[in-house]
Amino acid sequence: MTDTVAPTLFAHYVPLNALRPESQADLARKSAIVTAGKGEYLFRIGDPADKALFVLAGEVQLTDAQNRTLSVIRAGTPAAAHRLAHQSPRTVNAHCASEVRALAVDASLLDVMLTWDQTGSFEVGELTPSGDGGDDWMTRLLQMRTFQLVPPANLQAMFMRMQEVTVEAGSVVVKQGDDGDYFYVVMSGRCIVTREQPNQKPVRLAELESGACFGEEALIADGKRNATITALTRCKLMRLSKSDFQTLLNQPLSRRIGYAEAQKLVAAGKARWLDVRLPSEFQNGALPGALNLPLYILRMKLAQLDQNTTWIVCCDTGRRSSVAVFVLTQKGYDAYVLDGGMPAAP
């Protein structure tokens, strides 16, 4: 049995309460309220965690394979404000000790929206000084550490597959809310980055000039554009398709590391954990010694990070971490994604 979900319900649950109102409304339309009777199971060990479940009413016992009770989640308690054991596949059973009502949210969509919303402060990549265009854009691109990490063969293929496009002043290159389709580099001209807010004038975020790149975050997160890019002058752009970007750039730059290897680096003092989840998620459980720097403020707080330290970036699934590592490598940091996300850690 399911009921429609009001977005106002999200205000009481983490990390749903951190989403923008528009994202909450979109997610609510694809969520449901489910009921289960006393003695039934919301899920069992080994089930895929395709739904993020929050206890609205009743009591749920989390049990192991021998049906021993590990914890009890009661509606209205602080523990109930968080998702029920959301590792995938499930590592515990969720047994209903009473009749239970639960909010069921599409877990993958939630992760995409968290990533989209938290990267909303900037859609752009490296911002570079003004220039005259010409071949400078390629030189500037190759001077970024991000592209220095890409194998030469991939770079050669990237430049061969890029398409040149010309846009006139006032033309919208990327529209907030659209699907991500291309990665762009400004060859010449200037663009402006704006963010639209409900019932408010668009907020100006940045200005892009020759050598600047943008559009990568929607491609990495496989989400919607979170800002609008408009040509201020006549611009020449180079663009790379989503599939080519993922094959030639994102995969080589993902720099994933397993938990065991990462833990050795951290224990030896050669690396630190960087948790890019929301503070409310971080407080509910984090790796020892981890620094919490949510993705949505990462660009603004980069000065807090030691550039001589290797950063192992973690989140729930690795999606937000992948965006963070791309940002960090652009700025010259040594960073890796914790493969498998937080569920990979004991």
What this model shows, in words?
With 346 residues, the chain is of the alpha+beta class. The chain has helices at 21-29, 107-118, 136-143, 145-148, 152-161, 216-221, 242-253, 259-267, 279-283, 319-330; strands at 2-3, 32-36, 41-43, 51-57, 59-63, 69-74, 93-96, 100-106, 163-167, 172-174, 182-188, 191-195, 203-208, 213-214, 228-231, 235-241, 256-257, 271-275, 291-292, 310-314, 334-338. Helix 5 packs antiparallel against helix 7 (242-253). The protein starts with a strand and ends in an 8-residue tail after the last strand. Mean pLDDT is 86; it is low at 121-134.
Describe the structure in brief.
Helices cover 25% and strands 28% of the residues. It is an alpha+beta fold and 346 residues long.
Q: What are the segments in which pLDDT stays under 50 over at least 5 consecutive residues?
A: 121-134
Q: Counting H and I runs of at least 4 residues, what is the number of helices?
A: 10
- Any idea what the radius of gyration is? 22 Å
Q: Report strand order across the widest sheet.
A: 17-21-20-18-19
Gap between N and C termini = 35 Å
* Percent of residues in β-strands: 25-35%
- From the helix content, strand content and strand pairing, which structural class follows? alpha+beta
Helical fraction equals 25-40%
The average pLDDT value, as a whole number, equals: 86
What's the β-strand tally?
21
Largest sheet: number of strands, sense, barrel closure: 5 strands, parallel
Principal-axes shape call: globular
Oligomeric state of this protein:
single chain
